[in-house]
Amino acid sequence: MQEHAFLREEIEQAIAQEPRITGSITVELRGRDVRLTGIVNSLEERELAEEVAREFGPVRIDNDIVIESTKVIDDHDVLASAKRAIARDPDLAHDIGVDRVVGGVAYLKGHSASLSGISNAAEIVAEAPGVKDVVSEVKIKTDVLITDVDLVDEVMQALSVDPAIHAEFIDVRAKDGVVTIEGTVDSLKQKTEAGNIAKTMPGVTGVVNNLNMNQLPSSLDQAVENQVIKALELSEINMNSVRVNVLDGVVHLDGTVDTYRQKDLAERTARKVPDVRYVQNDLVIGFHIEPKAG
DSSP string covering 210-251, please? Predict the structure, then answer.
């Protein structure tokens, strides 16, 4: 019991000594599972507190820290902060910017050639002080017309040059910019990697990852998967475009959600399900597709 209390105090002290965390964090310990509670001013502080706690090697972390500024921050100040955050990446800021902030919610505007660019921008802006959520209004747009046939060729070529993926067992289809990958891979890691490759291709407006894994999930994995899906359905998350896979206790979240808050909420919700060892969060933020010329 004394060792248990000592570890809790060590984690609390480490978080308190992190200068970038201005909020007050409380640590609860149950076995080797850690629960973080308290109030911070930004997503960056929230994630940083979890990062510090992970250095102590807990089995699982429930991050229930609330993002709520202890002082009133004007949306104008939050907007300036968000713009400074994204400006640190000149290449990204050239195409994507922060249009406005309403009630702490930052709205992204601009265009991107790929889904990964939108996701990167949302994560950067989410770390800005005062930002409570991020909504993307970024349009998928390229300088040249890319047909669905071209997209299939590009994705297949990219998969073929990756030595970790056996592209000969993968089929790719595309319709109106949405790419579907089907077939078989050896592991959840390969499935995730294949989906990430497709997301980086210019002109891809969505990815449906229907890859199967040779290693069938155990009955425990299936039970965990069912529990995660049920927990997500009971939350505020729009599940229409969310897919869940579990292998060896690792939860893979893939698909599209409406806001950065939903992406974060999905990961936190999945982590709380018993027997979940890790959550691979590949959810992307919803976006608007540039209308085709008439």
Answer: EEEESSPPPHHHHHHHHHHHHHHHHTT--GGGEEEEEETTEE
Residue pair 98/82 in contact by the 8 Å Cβ criterion: yes
Task: Please give the Cα distance from 61 to 80 (Å, whole number).
Answer: 33
pLDDT digit string, tens, across residues 51-67: 888 887 766 788 888 87
Establish if 57 belongs to a structural domain.
Answer: yes
The token pair that represents 130 in the structure block:
């005062």
- How far from 245 is each of 105, 112, 292, CA to CA, in Å? 30, 28, 34
Strand ranges in 103-199 using DSSP code E only, listed in sequence order: 105-112, 133-136, 139-140, 170-175, 178-185
How many structural domains is the chain composed of? Answer: 4
93 Cβ contact partners less than 8 Å away, ≥ 6 residues apart: 86, 87
Q: Is the pTM of this model over 0.85?
A: no
Secondary structure letter of residue 143 according to DSSP: S
Do 56 and 82 lie in one domain? The reply is no
Identify the domain containing residue 18 by its residue range. 2-67
Q: Is residue 127 part of a domain?
A: yes
User: What span, in angstroms and rounded, lies between the C-alpha atoms of 195 and 128?
Assistant: 28
Is residue 37, in this structure, part of any structural domain at all? yes
Domain for residue 260, yes or no? yes
